[in-house]
Amino acid sequence: MSIPPGTRTKLCGFGRYPTITGRLVAARDRAELSAVLQAEPSLIARGNGRSYGDAALNADCVVSMLGLNRFVDFDAATGVLVCEAGILLAEILQVMVPRGWFPPVSPGTQYVTVGGMVAADVHGKNAHRDGTFGQYVEWLELMQQDGTIKRCSRTRYPAWLHATIGGMGLTGVIVTVAFRMIAIRTAWIHRELYTAVGLGAAMELLDRHAGRHYTAAWVDCHARGKALGRAVLFCGEHAEVAALPPGTAALHIPQRWTATVPLTPPCSLLSGFCGRLFNELYYPLNRLKVRQQLVDYQRFFYPLDAITGWHRLYGPRGFCQYQCVFPDATSHRGVRAVLQAQAASGQASPLAVLKRLSAGSGLMSFAMPGYTLAMDYVASESTFTLFRSLDAIVAEHGGRIYLAKDSRADEIAAGYPVEQFRHFRKAVDMRFNSLLAERLRL
Amino acid sequence: MNIDRQRLLVLGATADIARAVAREFAAHGCAVEMAARNPDALQRECQDLRLRSGVEVRGHVYDVLHVEDDARLLHALAENFPGTTICAIGLLHPQRECSANVALAAEVMHSNYTAPARVLEQIAAIYRQAGAGCIIGIASVAGDRGRAANYSYGSAKAGFAVFLSGLRASLQGTGVRVITLKPGFVRTRMMQGRQTPAVLTAAPQELAVRLFRLYDSGANGVFYYKRIWRPIMWLICLLPERLFMRLQL
Lengths: 442, 249
Fold this sequence. Notes:
- The structure holds two protein chains of two kinds.
- Chain A is an alpha+beta fold.
- Helix content of chain A is about 25%, strand content about 25%.
- In chain A, strands 16-12-14-13-19-20-18-21 form an eight-stranded antiparallel beta sheet.
- The mean pLDDT of chain A is about 95.
- Chain B is about 50% helix and about 20% strand.
- Chain B has nine helices and nine strands.
- Chain B has helices at about 15-25, 40-55, 65-75, 95-100, 100-130, 150-170, 205-215, 230-240, 240-245, and strands at about 5-10, 30-35, 55-60, 80-85, 135-140, 175-185, 185, 200, 220-225.
- Chain B is globular and about 55 Å long.
- The interface of A and B includes residues 74 and 91 of A.
């Protein structure tokens, strides 16, 4: 088996910070992948590059999994879909939604690979109720450093399954994933909208609507004082056929309006004045909006996917996301402290999302019962200074930061069982390594 | 022979362009017959296409370099012969290796030209008799002018393109079409490891969409993808040989 040639190219995560010049090797099937694994002393698998920082970067070798993107099997009786790890969630939606099936958990973009969803144990708007993606994984095939495949399930190699879910690709290369989908009657979501005047009200709203299938809150990071944490809460339920206007195709949605950001502007258009303007307008505008509405699933789950390259609006330096979670006991204090610190720093985030989570399903999963807050900032020294102060708040309140979003922390906040995880990494000769793993000494 | 217009035969079905084209035709409701050399890879692609599209998909283990495989394939298809055939068979080895190893050079030439021409001639005969059908051949811009970097491959693709052109002329008036598609840079496995300018490079899916549109509009002739390659190749062909040699394009 010949090893596919690599390309020297610029590589980065979704935040475009950091950017490295590295070698990208594309594997098309497991035989090629196996050859690469045996030949390379250090590598990391890469999906569609939607983790924000350096999780899918390695200075020596990065293996693109996008060529392993085949459907393998689907059982309509159980809803279990088997697919190769490089398949995009977008492809799954395109094929499965018209047949009445939906992913059990969906992150904020559909342009992620299934392998990436497992590696980061992603959560979605239903995280408070249904947990993370890892819970729905029936089994997965993990290729190890010698090119052999370990099929991990809850009964065979359960510890490896546990370590691989949320394991950021450091326990081996995820090759195939079998996961349970949920049945839907329509491709439409019944959306409800609520506004909250401050953080306390926002968290109370989230708690009150914890029985809803999907909830998430957009938070105005510019608001201070009493209005600190004012928010717009979105709730959603899969709509029944009877709720659709007559003549609507239940499982097919209209073609969506899309746009592309053609180039990177010389400076950020989302922070500073523009971000402030957006936030000032967004809250009042949503107060005027229709409270209850039927929207298609694309608009509900992936509003930003309609604008290809929207993240380039953050300018040439790229951006960073700070996402942390606090356990239930300290959530209120923690979230408030973070919002206050970032508002006081004078560089409020143009986009922030507050959600309730429940426990994750992997050893290194980010999710835990409590509240999570995610905020975007332009990558800069002052941002990193702010992030360090936020790290202290997170540590003080027993929270943790999301590895898939991180690009700069010097050390991992407590709350991750790193020692235990290392045991699995050593078992595969530390062959699977990323800049993230090196930086945080995972 | 009974010709099924809603059925596509894909020769070289595990190639990236073939996968994309099969998917595009299947999305428009065409049943697909996939023919490829590697049984495991073939089986994987068939299953993937079946699950994605819900159309009827059949796999045929077929090696274009084995003459005896032709009869077996055509026999297996005979009952409901696919009204459209796309040949996406292609083999590229670095020119250094081809120059150093004549057997390899011969294999490249055989795989890209003489062997596909042989099977397409037989399929053309079936279509001619039925008075309907469409043959799509994937040639290459590399066949428009011989470059130092890939002349074994390029010459074979040139031969294939001329073969398709002659076939098209001979089928004039019979109701059978021949589409020659000459891709420029496409992000396929064949191109792996090469950096190419984004404006000249296409994704296999884009090419597939364009090809289906050509097919659907009743096209018959030579087409480039991306389209900008037509003027580029026209200019390159105009260069005097002495200049072309020196430029080392």
